[in-house]
Amino acid sequence: GVAALVKGLGIAALKQHDLIPTLEDACANGSPPSKQGALFAFELLCERLRLLFEPYVIVILPLLLKCFSDGSDHVRKAAHGAAKAIMKNLSQHGVKLVLPKILEALEDTAWRTKQAATQLLG
User: Are 103 and 117 in contact (CB under 8 A)?
Assistant: First the structure.
């Protein structure tokens, strides 16, 4: 899939083919299957690229947390899988960068987003 393509072509392929903005748009504005697909892509990119994908995690984390409040159970499950992969593959420096975004999410009005942020903290 997308993760294998990026791993084969190199991390620069994310920028060259505008993959992150496309996935972000699908995650923010798409139908439930589009959101689910984007979240699966984020999960696999994180699993396959590991530390190379870490700079993009800060960008996608707010969208990921919002997906925990989605009306579709499939989207919420995909968000859980992506969050698990992201947190598992973060370096110590990545945790320091992600922590402010997670703490911000604790102030969100949606209870599921707050719950997800709490779970991400450990």
Answer: yes
As a whole number of angstroms, the distance between CA 79 and CA 58 comes to: 15
- For residue 1, is pLDDT > 90? no
pLDDT tens readout for residues 13-23: 999 999 999 99
**Other beta carbons less than 10 A from residue 25's beta carbon:** 14
Q: What are phi and psi of 70, to 5 degrees?
A: -65, 150
Dist CA 114 CA 2 (whole Å): 30
**Residues 31-50 pLDDT 10s:** 999 999 999 999 999 999 99
Asked if 20 and 14 count as a contact pair (C-beta separation under 8 A), the reply is yes
Token pair belonging to 29: 């504005």
Residue type, 39: L
Closest CA to 86 of 108, 109, 102, 105: 102
Is a pLDDT exceeding 90 seen at residue 52? yes
What is the helix, strand, coil percentage profile of the chain, to 5? 85, 0, 15
